UniProtKB/TrEMBL annotation, chain B:
This is Uncharacterized protein. Belongs to the GerABKC lipoprotein family. It comes from Anaerobacillus arseniciselenatis. Its main location: membrane. One of its GO terms (cellular component) is membrane. Residues 222-389 form the Spore germination GerAC-like C-terminal domain.
Amino acid sequence: MIEKGKISAAQMALMMHPTIIATGILFVPSISAAKAGRDMWLSPIWGSFIGFLVVFIAYQLHKHFPNETIIEYSEHIVGRIPGKVIGLIYLLFYLHVNGIIIREYGEFLSGVFLMTTPESVIFGSMTLVCAFAVRGGLEVIARSAQLFIPIVVLLFLLIVFFLALDLAPTNMLPVFEEGITPSILGAAAPAAWFSEFLLIAFLLPYLTDKEKGLKWANLSVLSVVFILVITNVTALFLFGEITADLLYPVMSAGRYVRVAEFFTHLESIIMAIWILGTFIKISVFYYALVLGTAQWLKLSEYKFIVLPLGFLLVLFATWSAPNLTELKGFLGTSAVFYLLSVQLVLPSILLLIVVIQKKVIQKRSIQA
Amino acid sequence: MNSFHIPKISKTLLVILLSILLSLVIGCWDRREINDIAIVLSTGIDYINEDEIELSVEIVMPEEMAGHIGEGGRGGDRSTFVESATGVTMADARSKLQQKLSRFLFWGHAENTVIGEKLAEKGIREHLDFFSRMPETRLRNWVFVSEGKAKDLISSLPHLENSAAATFIELSEFQIGMNVTMKDLMQMLKSDTGGAALPIFESLPPKKEKGKLEGRFQPYLSGTAVFKDDKMIGKLNDEVSRGLLWIRDEIHYATVTVDVEEEGATGKVSLELIRSHTELIPKIKNNKWSMILKIYAEDDVIQNASHLDLRNPDFIKMIETKMEEAIEERIKLVVEQVQKQMKVDIFNFNESFQRHYTKEWQTAKKNWDEIFPEIEIEYIIEAAVLRPGTSTTPSAVPERELKDE
């Protein structure tokens, strides 16, 4: 195996948590609110079903091929050439999606804080830091997640706590004014985010306690649901109908905090949450890309392709969208189908083939 | 499977190279030191003509502010100054304003937005966008309408604070009138059926008066501006505004004076509000829409200008009844003006019906403007006088004049 590091199942859960929420808490509330309105707080709950499903599929595939990642076992499932094609799809997908994530990070940073800083510097500096983490290997990413994520969650809850007095729960009523449909439509974006849980297919082979993998992955989905629901509830209780009008409701909420006349301007905390979270998120995607590429090309070592791929990532970040309006439009519409087809449909097909193959083999052995 | 090896010398080179690279990522592009920015405290927007608005800003003079601390808070001269410029939009006016200043205008600490009366009558929606779109602005800044020009109001120099902005903040924190932040205003304007209401500030022109310093005048709350859609259509005076606060469950400070009957004459008892709670209970019966206004208020007696001995529980009961009547009267004032004359829903009745009668609301929301003025209001008011203050009998009243039963 190329990766010699080992992580625990709990560390995997900690890594996956920011991988979903880091960009989720900034972009999703506004996208959900546009479709679901007052019922937006339900959308992450509907979306989480996709999360549990993806975790289930990834785990089943893992059970059949306990020491391989999706890049390796897709060759074993459908044969060498089709397997390589599927592997390539995943690699291009992760390259593109990670480019988009870096773009989201850069858009937020340059749109809200660093207006005149060139985007390539923002993209480049983050990618460079992540490249160091990825070069360090799986254990390094896992330990930084272990270190940062409790801080991220704590700071986030702190913001919600300080907003408590300004929250108006009546903004939630009436629930289901136009039936259940709006909240399900609003779940499209969270569902796409949840499908990113497929990344555990790259992490499961390196667990020290494999039997706990499924449990921790599901716990991670639950924790993400929890944070996303809290995010949406806070945005809804605070901003009500104008949530959809705001580009980054959580950011606006952070700025809205005012306790005892002097405790204000908490946007830097949002910033800290965002940068720490995105660091882990980009690193995990980056790692999957690097490890997958090395396995696809059957390399003996992945460290030396880290920086070249990082360069590509920065390019993809720049190319992924001409402007923020198109980026957000893409995230709310076609990205949903894009992410779901690669991260849910494709693995489901792989799993189906494996199950059928096993059945056929079983039948043959019985006949023989 | 040995990791590829970097020779030692090139490793040192790498470190040097990275250090140079690091100097590029410290964010020099957006470096803005505190002495490069002009901190805006209040923003005033005025109507000039059909095409132009005037943007006035109250800016901190940092040296002045620091000076006061050194001098032990003398509370002397203004620590802020006002600059203004005209333009076709807020952003246009801002760029012209910037030309007049040596420092970069910074809106991150803006606490108040004052809308001139005239501009309010023309419509405010387009100007608010500036505040939700500019990355550095906050949605928590108090918004109000000024009687007269906004520029005059933010230029006023009060007695107690050393800037107009500080006065507005203190008065808003006081919660004596309506308290509307930019976020609240946007929520009000977003609604299809409801109107909006903003507090009105007024500032009397400086005139010589005993006990007041020349040139200083206090901005004060003088009522409520009522908006239909995004245009101001009327004003409620201070007294009527209080009734509005009762309906919206936003009343925090209230002193109610009631007349109590004594043999032959009437005396007065004043009560101070401790806490109150207003509940709106919508009802639709036989296609007739009505609203029950349920108010519970707790009060203490703060002055007893009658001859009643408040040790007698019957008197307390009587005062409570009088209090309930007084509150109802207050509320009826505002209902008359807002519901019957202006016909704008600033009572949040729309939300209340939407929550309780979701189905009926779907059809009603289209002609809410017609339904709202016809809604019958029923009052259920309960006032409780909890304590008679710190004295029992009216002070300094001879025993024989006391009325204790």
